[in-house]
Amino acid sequence: MAGTIIPVTMPKFGLAMTEGKIAGWLAHPGDDISAGAELAEIETTKITNVYESPASGILRRQVASEGETLPVGALIGVLAEGEVTDDEIDSFVTTFQSEMATTGNDDKADGAVMPEIVTVGSRRIRVQDAGKGADGAPLLLIHGFGGDLTNWMMTQGGLAGQVRVISFDLPGHGESTKDVGDGSPATLAAITNDLLDTLGLARVHVAGHSLGGAVALELAKIAPSRVASLTLVAPAGLGDTINEAFIDGFINADRRKTLEPVLQMLVHDKALISRQMVDGIIRFKRLDGAMAALNAIARASFENGRQKENLRGVLERFDGRVSVIWGAEDEILPVSGAEGLPAKVAVHVLPDTGHMPQLERSAEVNDLLTATISA
Questions:
Q1: How many whole angstroms separate alpha carbon 188 and alpha carbon 125?
Q2: Residues of the chain under the 70 pLDDT cut
Q3: Lipoyl-binding domain spans which residues (predicted)?
Q4: Distance CA 346, CA 338 (A)
């Protein structure tokens, strides 16, 4: 609309995200921008992600500089048509920043949902529970090997306004207990089932990524009536092979120089792996019990570049809706695992995408998840 000034603000990629860094601008002042076009790379403590323009217009001002860290909601740029004068934009920027300074950046007002520790039997599990007032069965998110609940930050942040979304750290990961039993997907599924009991959830939609996909399949096997639908994102359990170099490298690399190239196997766009993400995993691996837990899980699930469990039979018996999402360029679990599945399984292969579609192609994954749980 002529004369309209549109603020471009620091996005909120995850429910607990409070600030982000402008890693780089992908558009320049004077560029004609379409809604959804790539504007900037935003770096958080976990990952670098591309911020897509919320609207169409001419990028008239880059308010934030590259390398600058700003709170969620802060003004980083301005879109406006050519007839809007520079003085009008100056006035808009001054007013916006003045109002933000007055209002402040209260996490509660900003909708931040912080994780909590839940006691499940003898174990302590970190849980992030968002959208509790939403109707219908909640969506449970299960991360993969070496990850934590923040692997789903784009999913939980994107869907929490539509459905109750629950993410958690599997035992042996993140801030959860490091007691993993025998470390098998079946044992992790049993603990997940106990978590649902603790949360008082009789029925949930389940999305599992990588190892979390195998855990989701095991959950559907032991408690089929509890699982309303399955969304498997680059899952273990549907193929034979696993990139042993990734598993070994993740466990054994103890410096940024050696760990960073291992983590880059997770994504097609290697720039998405931030220095903070690498440093965070190094710190995690130094926690008491972390390495023993990772080794136990790896031994239980993978051996000599092979996956120990084939869980395709679960899909034959499962009555609910099933969707499989896989990156065509997955370097960890080959996309061939999506071939030959039962006809009732909806398979979506995303081009130019690696092992973490929920971060690389978050909008598409969120749309596919929404379609599965609402069908």
A1: 12
A2: 1-3, 14-16, 101-112
A3: 5-80
A4: 10
Cβ(166)–Cβ(141) under 8 Å? Answer: yes
* Side-chain-facing half-sphere of 228: CA atoms under 13 Å: 15
352-363 residue pLDDT tens: 999 999 999 988
* Range(s) of the chain covered by CATH 3.40.50.1820: 116-374
Q: Which residues, 6+ apart, have CB-to-CB distance to 215 below 8 Å?
A: 142, 170, 185, 188, 189, 192, 208
Q: How far is CA 356 from the centre of its chain?
A: 8
Q: What is the pLDDT of residues 215-260, one digit of tens each?
A: 999 999 999 999 999 999 999 999 999 999 999 999 999 899 999 9
Instruction: State which amino acid sits at residue 304.
Output: N
Question: Which CATH number among 2.40.50.100, 3.30.70.2860, 1.10.8.100, 3.10.25.10 corresponds to the domain 5-103?
Answer: 2.40.50.100
For residue 360, give every residue at least 6 positions away whose Cβ sits within 8 Å of its Cβ, in sequence order, or none. 267, 268, 269, 272, 327, 350, 353, 354
> Looking at the domain that runs over 116-374, which CATH code has it been given?
3.40.50.1820
pLDDT of 261: 96
Domain(s) labelled CATH 2.40.50.100 in the chain stretch across 5-103
Global model pTM greater than 0.70 = yes
Q: How far is CA 122 from the centre of its chain?
A: 28
Closest-CA residue to 23 (of 259, 273, 263, 264): 273
